[in-house]
Amino acid sequence: MPEMVPRQPRKAGKREAILSAARGIVSEVGFHETSIAAVASASGVSTGSVYSYFSSKAELMAEIVAAVSSRELAVLREIAASDAPVAERLTAAVEAFARRAFANRRLAWSMIAEPADPAVDATRLDYRREIAGIFRALVVEGGRQGVFRNVDSDAAAAMIVGGFMEALIGPLSPERATTSERGREIAAALADLSLAALISREGQAA
């Protein structure tokens, strides 16, 4: 009797290959210019095969946002869970996010700012909420320790995340030529400013 070959792993592998190819194309040209035909060609399948895994381009792009977001969230959670002092963890998280964004500027700009389908926007919003949750926990922890002044943790987290993401839009834009050195400077400045929002003017927790 011939051996049966499991189909599910092969199917899962093809789906991942399509996602990987699509992510690579988005990293070069963004959501709008990424076509299903280009994704099919890059992943070695037919356009019909792509649609058998993803019902639309919007669904595929939303899956890319979800996959990239999951990776970035893992990095931030690892930093937030470390044994470093809370102020160091907060600045390290901001700086890591920004540095990683500059490491793949086109993809990061698409993830943060490129006009996209509502399905992509909804996934991006979920991503931002999860990031805000990480920073909210750090704000609460720092407040309990007396490291940060007494602030509304939800408002503070929203301000920090909204602030550094907004500040990254211009430098990440495909129309801007931001050097690696300038990217590092911006990342460090955003980390410093995020911390400054939580510290009293005298440099001590209130």
Spell out the blueprint of helices and strands.
Blueprint lengths: L7 H26 L2 H8 L3 H7 L3 H24 L5 H18 L1 H8 L5 H28 L7 H20 L7 H17 L10
Helix pairs in contact: 1-2, 1-4, 1-6, 2-3, 4-5, 4-7, 5-6, 5-7, 5-8, 5-9, 6-8, 7-8, 8-9
Question: Would you kindly provide a written description of the structure presented here, covering whatever features stand out?
Answer:
The chain is mainly α and 206 residues long. It is built from nine helices and no strands. It has helices at residues 8-33, 36-43, 47-53, 57-80, 86-103, 105-112, 118-145, 153-172, 180-196. α5 (86-103) packs parallel to α8 and α5 packs antiparallel against α9. The radius of gyration is 20 Å and the shape is elongated. 32% of the residues are buried. The model is unreliable at 1-9 (pLDDT under 50).
Brief synopsis:
It is built from nine helices and no strands.
Number of helices: 9
In N-to-C order, the SSE pattern is HHHHHHHHH
| Main beta sheet strand tally, sense and closure | none
Computed over alpha carbons, the radius of gyration is 20 Å
Average per-residue pLDDT, rounded, comes to 91
Summing up helix and strand content along with how strands pair, one would put the structural category as mainly alpha
Distance, first to last CA: 76 Å
Please tally the β strands and state the result.
0
The percentage of residues in β strands lies in under 5%
